[in-house]
Amino acid sequence: MTWRPCTGAAVALLPWLALPAPLLAQNANWPVYHGNDEHTHYTTLSQITPANVKRLTVAWTFDTKDAFPGSEMQANPIIIDGVLYATTPKLQVFALDAATGKQRWRFDPQHGAPPTSRIRHRGVIVTGDRVLFNYRNRLYALDRRTGRPIPTFGDSGWVDLRQGLGRPIEGLSVSASTPGVVFEDLLIMGSTVPEQLPSAPGDIRAFDINTGALRWSFHTIPHPGEFGYDTWPPDAWRIAGGANAWAGVTIDAARGLVFAATGSASYDFYGANRLGDNLYANSVIALDARTGQRRWHHQVLKHDLWDRDLPAAPILVTVQRGGKAVDAVAQITKTGHTFLFDRVTGTPLFPLEEVRMPHQALDGEQTSPTQRFPVSPPPFARQQLTKNDLTRRTPAAHRAALKTFTEYNTPHPYTAPNTKGIIIYPGVDGGGEWGGPAFDPKTGLMYVNSNEMAWLLKLVPRSDASLYSANCAGCHGEDRKGTAIGPSLLDIATRRSREQLLQMVREGTGRMPGFGAAMDGGAINDLVNYLVTGKDETKAKAASAPNPYALPYRTAYFDIFLDHEGYPGVKTPWGTLNAIDLTRGTMAWSIPFGEYPRLAAKGIRNTGTDSYGGAIVTENGLLIIAATTYDNKIRAFDKSNGKLLWEATLPFAGNATPSTYMVNGKQYLVIACGGGKNGAPSGGVYVAFALP
């Protein structure tokens, strides 16, 4: 993070932010998502030190009063010229005085209406006179001074992200959970699309910051004549979905390059309709930032069948090779691997090993014969689950875990999904997650928190007995009680109006696909009747036309591998915090990260937990991170060895990346406390810390 004092032009533009001249030099910004264009979470601010960090106290809190059951809040706040910009659990956008937490303005894209679903959102973009953010399919531009939509941007202040994808917009669900990047007069961004079918394609796009006009698109599902087209079936570009950069993109402004990391193709777990390697799914991609033309790519996982999206945007680092500095791109994975590429050429900077893969799969499926893995650095997550890796927390817990392990027998980490069930390990929530790594350019160390939990997956033949079974049970369960990827629908009629349900089924929402293109109006109406009444008297085949998105298998069970008391079924640690030397390709240190309060009260400490959100690394020796799901802590560690220096309890879990900034000569540390992950309580509070 660099010092960016207010300029005369900025003060003239925003007079309500004006400060006396002596204070201008005492302000430092957190100007973009994750602190800088490189996404390294690094700061040179030094008022908070390893020696005084234990004196941090709460400077202010801001309760959004916007949480609801199951909601999350993952924003990394932006702070510019003494003003903080962020979002609430219902995705209202606000501006605060960054020194006091007092609200200046607030914008509600729903105009008071209740949310139709849980929203995951990681913040906003502040550039020039505007604040850019996404709500569902709408990309808004707000006036930075007032929070009102800018009428000259798009259609009276917003652009429809469903447009320009080469598909009819009816039934498309397209949003963006992670802020994009600004380069010259372009906003470059990825998108969030459903992981079930039907799904939109994951095009990476650039929009004119001033007008909202689409300037270029890169097709992550290649069109005819484009490189990679032959890695899909011929018609895939018309109907396939996913391969989207949902975790954001990273800009090298000096070189005019933008880097993206993509997710898997839809549907995640069965790919008979997408035979081939499926470029550019699960890939690191370098594009010309002005034109969107491909410069280089590396596919990390071919024909993904395990939901192993690349979980965070690439970070830009500099490492030593043969005594020379080499600019590079580092990419973490859900499997706990770290790929390192030359930034200009895409050449791997550590050797890759080609490994033979199992070939058994369900009818119609064809797995990739091989996958490539870096020889160095070592993975920051365990790679295969055996009987010796099952929990020993109690004898009863071990017996329960062994029973599940035996039922879901998985001889190889890349066993293809099947109807008997498999264990995905590392799980679909990592290894690495969307918080992404932090990098210290002074030492060459990269810091990443890792989840160490297995997941269970079982497929079943897709039933055509009812509309619900054919289209909804894979996410929400055959009994409508919900799963890890879809909430319970048992009482949905008490929480949503019939009109809202019709809209959700027709248009989709977030990761849920819209069925407007796959079902006629009568079928959608019949499906909503079932959700409201619980009585399903229709047959899928009778109610809907032939469906090009239909697959012969769907998800029957998909959830975390837990013991009989709800704790992970594997040995501790269940979460770690790691330091990796990117020059040497070695692990510098690794510690358990997080606790379960109920176990800690019994003396079972340092178990580790799952964590979501990243760390800040400071030039003067600190690694600061919240992220842990159940203990509601924010912590500061000695970055050289992982020694705990300070911790504080938050009102809710801080499943987000903190920001640090300076106003009027005082350094602050702020974290969004939203909770809501994996059954944890939901909240909507921002907490800022400072020295007394």
What can you tell me about this protein's structure?
- There is one protein chain.
- The protein is mainly beta and 692 residues long.
- Among the domains are: 1-118 and 612-692, no CATH class; 463-550, Cytochrome Bc1 Complex, Chain D, domain 2 (Orthogonal Bundle), CATH 1.10.760.10.
- Helices cover 10% and strands 29% of the residues.
- It is built from 11 helices and 39 strands.
- The strands form 11 sheets. It has a 5-stranded mixed sheet, with no helix packed on it.
Write the SSE topology.
Layout: H1 8-13, H2 21-24, E1 42-43, E2 57-63, E3 78-80, E4 83-87, E5 93-97, E6 103-107, E7 125-127, E8 130-135, E9 138-143, E10 158-160, E11 181-183, E12 186-189, E13 204-208, E14 214-218, H3 236-239, E15 241-242, E16 249-252, E17 257-261, E18 265-266, E19 283-288, E20 294-299, E21 315-321, E22 324-332, E23 338-342, E24 352-356, E25 370-374, H4 395-407, E26 422-424, E27 438-440, E28 445-451, E29 455-461, H5 467-471, H6 473-476, H7 492-495, H8 498-507, H9 521-533, H10 540-543, E30 553-560, E31 575-581, E32 586-592, H11 597-600, E33 615-618, E34 622-625, E35 633-638, E36 644-649, E37 659-663, E38 666-675, E39 682-690
Parallel strand pairs: 1-33
Antiparallel strand pairs: 2-39, 3-4, 4-5, 5-6, 7-8, 8-9, 9-10, 11-12, 12-13, 13-14, 15-18, 16-17, 17-19, 19-20, 21-22, 22-23, 24-25, 26-29, 27-28, 28-31, 29-30, 31-32, 33-34, 34-35, 35-36, 37-38, 38-39
Helix pairs in contact: 8-9
